[in-house]
## 1
Amino acid sequence: MSDKVDLLSWTCPVPLRHYPTIVMGHGAGGQMMADLIRHLFAPAFANEWLEQMGDATVLAALTGDRPDAQLAFTTDSFVVSPLFFPGGNIGELAVNGTVNDLAMRGARPLFLSAGFILEEGLPLETLGRIVQAMAEAARRAGVAIVAGDTKVVQKGHGDGIYINTSGIGLVQPGVKIGPSNARPGDVVLVSGTMGDHGIAVLSVREGLAFETTVQSDTAPLYSLVETMLAAGEVHCLRDATRGGLAAVLNELAVASHVGIEFEEQSVPLKPAVSAACEMLGLDPLYIANEGKLVAIVAAQSAEAILAAMRAHEYGREAAIIGRVTDTHAGLVIARTAIGGQRLVDLPAGELLPRIC
Amino acid sequence: MRYVDEYRDAGLTQKLLAEIRKTVTRPWTIMEVCGGQTHSIIKSGLDQMLPPEITLIHGPGCPVCVTPLELVDKAIAIASRPEVIFASYGDMVRVPGSGRDLFSVRAAGGDVRIVYSPLEAVEIARRNPEKTVVFFAIGFETTAPANAMAVLQARAQGLKNFAVLVSHVTVPAAIRALMDSPEVRVDGFLAAGHVCTVMGYWEYEPLAAQYHIPIVVTGFEPVDILNGMLTCVRLLESGRAEVRNAYGRSVRREGNVAAQAVIRQVFEMTDRAWRGIGVIPMSGYRLRAEFAEFDAEQRFPQVQAIATHESPLCISGLVLQGLRRPDECPAFGKECTPQSPLGATMVSSEGACAAYYRYGRRHER
Amino acid sequence: MCLGIPGKIIELYEANGMKMAKVDFGGVIQEVCMEYLPEARVGDYTIVHVGFGLSILDEQEAAETMELLRQVEAMAEEAGS
């Protein structure tokens, strides 16, 4: 019997088959936990650094032949419910989310750590599928998962599984991207359709369930960023996760002390996302994305950067949506479909569907 | 989306605005009754594009905003009970009671669930026989048929663990109360298109005649709102106090007869308190006696409001009657924001205060 | 009050003793209660509020009204306003 993780259809490795669900012992630091690491995590994430199996993983000098390169470091935790949704699961989010945080500073992502908090009673098969998805996502993103931790909490004290990933990346010399770098006259772009992820997750939530073809857009964005940096002058990059496009634009406007104006109709939306928002009374500008970025670029670079994005698999529907102004600093104003104006404020809190 | 996008056309909007501009010869004050219309107007920026002769005031058509404080406190108390699963439309979950809101009940360990359809709440009751499921049945006449069907379904399925907390209000009595009020000055009404989809518009004919005001049944998209407004302005300019239907693709004079029959079967008219306004006679629905077993107020008689008090700073009632604009409230944008609302008109997404705040009217004072 | 969205009926069936429909809003499909629209047919558009169909959209009336509104447009243009 193989003790490797089967990546096509996950089957429980023999040494783990005594326990079809996670129990407290899996987090106790003893034989059970060692088995879990050796037969599930390690084979999935397989790489030379993980084989060290020490309390900490030693990485060689990262900057190599670029001593003036800078390191970037980030962390993120993933608590999404449900764990599985159209287009992905918490595993992909955990890898791509941290990879993208690094990419948004123009850093090539290199290494990730993965900390797991498992709820007693979580089926091993569920964990296996999530870990498999993380391994696949790491491969696609070109990162290695080199350190990890596992804890188990009592039943009722967790939503099945929480994952924390931290990541290290290398910022190429000369790259200066930051939220306070927007300047009046700059152009605002998005890399594709907005709201896909949030609607995909809502579509499987109890009480709201509806049928749709919308899938989560979770994706690793560094190679898209690399293409954009080569095509022109990028000032700001943000991935539009919780709070959606609206949250990002507000944060950038405030950080850079500028105003932002955009055309509502130029924001790309899948028709099904639009329809779901109408049905539930939600505004797509506030809905989470997991594989889309917002860029503020120098005006003279805008067309070249847009062309480069559209040639990339994660930027096919990229669009220019607006510009940075020196009026109404800190505020984001949209031109509505009928030619009116409205403020696009920060989201108030959790997005709720409405009947009125 | 078909039958939606074409009613948001910029060119048609501009031309209708131009026609309204051409038609008005004197100032007119028009009230749009429905909160959904308020939301659409503010979000699209239509209010800032109207000719100066038109004063648009926002009416009390926000069932969330007008749900009495006592009932919100009662909902919170019921939801806090360990044997209860409390189901609600999303709108109600952040409405502040005297102390806190339903959201914070969830944070404290209560089982509060958001549903899109009341039939979902019945399904939750069916799947959780050891719990009591209480559904917050709010709304105007539009939502009454759905809430009524939930009660009938619970009865048909023999469920003993389902109850509704009813807070239904009706429009014609509210218009009557507004017109009877000496402070309110409205020349014409845009009636609520989806309320009229259910109830028809024959109820408004005696109102138009008695108060000598035009009432135009109006939809929700910008082109619909302007169509309603143009119709109303034409009636005002020619001195005709009539009822017109500017939402004919959905509304017929008799309304939806099947829905009205079920409303009558499950509910009866009653006096209702409107938060911020007071008691309006025969302005709401309550469950008929034969459905008493499904009445949450009777199932939880021991649940009393602990101490019911409104914020002294909140002028929601004046806003709901169109007597003050949200940005005329001293607390607007300061003590009272969507993050820390003092009253329901700031919490509900189609409350006028929330609409004004979210879409930026506070920056144009 | 009252978010009501038009969608197209693509299937009619019965569940729990109620007439139901699958309604397509343009890439999103919801199960909608049709008890209040006994005359509904597949292919009709219906206005849906909280999972209930409340009216059948009168497509002819919609076309006629849209035509009238566009004539307002035309008249306004002719008048040079």
## 2
Amino acid sequence: MSTQSVNTNDPSPPSSSSILGGADRLAARWQDFLLLVGRVCIGWIFITSGWRKLMDMDAFIYKGAGSLVGRGVPGAGFWGWIGAPVEFFGGLAILFGFATRYVALLMILFVIIATAISHRYWEHSDPAQFRAQHSHFYKNLCMMGGLVVLFVAGAGRFAIDGLLRRRI
Amino acid sequence: MSIETSRSSHPSLSYADSIAAAATDACLLVARVLLGWLFLASSWVKLTNMAGFAAYLTNLKVPNPEFWSSLAAPIEFLIGLTLILGLATRYAALAAIVFVVIATSLGHRYWEFPQAQQLNQFNHFLKNLAIIAGALLVFITGAGRYSLDGMLRRRP
């Protein structure tokens, strides 16, 4: 007869039936490394797009139909100078894993606002434009999903948060 | 995974930890719907216009476009469905990663596009990278309680 003790501190409790939970151990063993990879991949787009805006704030806020003024955003001059730095530094914070949970929430808000301003696909009558904006809209929802999971998971060990946790 | 409930960072940077811990399962449900929806929506576009999808693959110089289009579109749909339902979630997340890697390396080689389209394609490239990251994070956390996996989990 075998007795099985239930370890309540199991770091990787089964996620599903045993057939469907085959990758659980893998996920538990690699989680800190994978969280680092995930943070780099999520942070990258914000760093890149934020930097592009900061390098040409005129184009972002004032010039052309794609700018904030062109899209009729109220207080564009003010909000542009809030949005671009938030995007750039938010991306950096995610990449380095600094205040990760706060920043994940902030970036969810950022993506909601950016999507509501720029990717209103239902307003386009040209089918090519409709398709393009439809795709961006759902990709942005998808990125928000990733940020929600980042909020849940935290940054992991290989992050500034991880360093601050261990030292203090 | 073990969610960091005690403290994720310096105390002043950790006030959201208890919210994250308390709302983990609800957050994971919301996140799975957001993540999976893209796959459902874009596979639906393909499934309702298979000729268009095959032509798109032909344009990208994919060999046997008829075969690959009829394989890829249902797979994309299934990925979305299993992510939202939370069934075999870790496998579904891995499949999503493979799918997006292939789709991106075929369709969003931004450096090969004419100048006018490069920025948009570069944006798609970066967004797909972020989507891969989202799937990776779901692979790490699993589906949470509010999922078919959660129902199937053996309870001690």
